[in-house]
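Researcher: Quick sanity check before group meeting.
Model: Go ahead. Protein one:
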Amino acid sequence: METEPDTGPLPDELPKERALGNQAYEAVLDLLVSGGLHPGDPIQERALATQLGFSRTPLREALHRLEGERLLERGANGRLFVRQVTVQEILEALHVRRLLEPDAAARAAGQVPRAVLERLRARVQELLACNEPGNPEHQVLDADLHGVICNYCDNEMLAGIIGEVRRKTRMFSLKRLDRRLAPVCHEHLAMIDALERGDSEEAARQTAEHIDNIRASILEKLARW
């Protein structure tokens, strides 16, 4: 009895596969950013698939994407490893962010729903009151605020480029700058206020100052090493 050749997934299965690939990508990226995977760690595909609850097909798609973004790299033996992001790369990424994110904030000013900004403001104030530098909410909140700016800047290409560059800075091994919790919270509140008022010029200025302060803090910490 003849069997039909396997021609791959049916058309209606493709969106589901893409969705799973995106979910796997986000899951692995979360591990990279949170420190669940460290620079130099080998990627053990089978164990990682089990840990994250994905089949190996969407996981491989995610790993291929992360390799393309140079967050993972292949060693001489062909195995994937977590790539070490250098200080120079971080400073270059911050330079690009400094060029692009103030414009995105200016575009988003007055466009973000008040309820969205109020929730962000409440989270910042709560984080400031707790005063716990190691609180993971610090990094999550930072990503959420900058993500909101990208979502409402009305330029998908600009948002995409910023998102890719921000992933690079989130991978930096000095990302936990303990002295920066309170200053970052106040910077975020100033950004939120400008966005809510619809003040494009001030939103851009506060965002630029925020990125400048990140760069200065990294350089200060490196100088103490």
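Researcher: Fine. The other one?
Model: Protein two, sequence then structure:
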Amino acid sequence: MTTMRVAALGGGHGLSASLSALRRLTNDITAIVTVADDGGSSGRLRRELGVLPPGDLRMALAALCDESDWGRTWRDVMQHRFVGSEGVETSLENHAVGNLLIVTLWELLGNAVAGLRWAGALLGARGAVLPMSTVPLNISGEVLTTTEGGSLSRRRIHGQAALAEAGNDTLVSNVALSPSDAPACPEALDAIELADWVILGPGSWYTSVLPHLLLPEMRDALQNTPARRLLTMNLVTDTQETSGMTAAAHLDVIARYAPDLRIDAVLADPSSVDDEQAFRAAARRLGAECFFGKVATGHDRAVHEPLRLAAEYQDVFEAFARNTTRREEE
């Protein structure tokens, strides 16, 4: 276990995967989480109470929980969802206990960061969890649709839940956040500035990974940090959100929305890269060195295995440490 400082950015299951791996390498982790979710329990709480969507924040906390009986028990409590009796409607239907607990802390303390700190203490979390912005965000994007006359027209899709499925038939473009000038969480900006490594991805490319580059203050922080930057690729590139996109096209999305951002390393499972030459070329355009390693679970190639991912992260970190030492000696 090292004292290396890591800031991990993303949301949902992708961020949980990277956190589950990173916690095996260091205790100094800051998870920076997207806050544009408008579906499920998070969407209901956001609409009804005007709060940040808590679901992805809850999942990040659960991924960082202490491995003691105490930590695992409270993780399971946080992740538990209410299900009504058959034929009985309940206002708690599908709400996660952790979502309600986090919102309760926010209301009592009047501060999102403080509430997450208290929730983390309950879980014995190895690290901190922060929202990327202090206000709820809305995400939208354009898709091509066919009119009744057979011509193509652009249609803007609003909301994370809708956009996550919009790419099933056509490519998503012109993705944007609103408010466009929303403030980034100050503590998140500090964590990026002070980190040794910043990890971006894996996760839903347009709705979990890209939002961090769409928020102006956060994009500037990522571009200017002295930290190394590592982009973790998804195991499956052809999803509802990114239908028909290659691994290289995923990298081109990053370059298109943040042309001044330089990436130091890109980590990919070989099975997810259909054209290695095109992928390496796209990585070079970002300034990145490619690393390949098997990080999928044995039974499900769409799910990252934490131990394998941790080993690959460690290899990347050590490779750059050796290069730094070699340059200093020269």
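Researcher: One line on it for the slide.
Model: The chain has 14 helices and ten strands.
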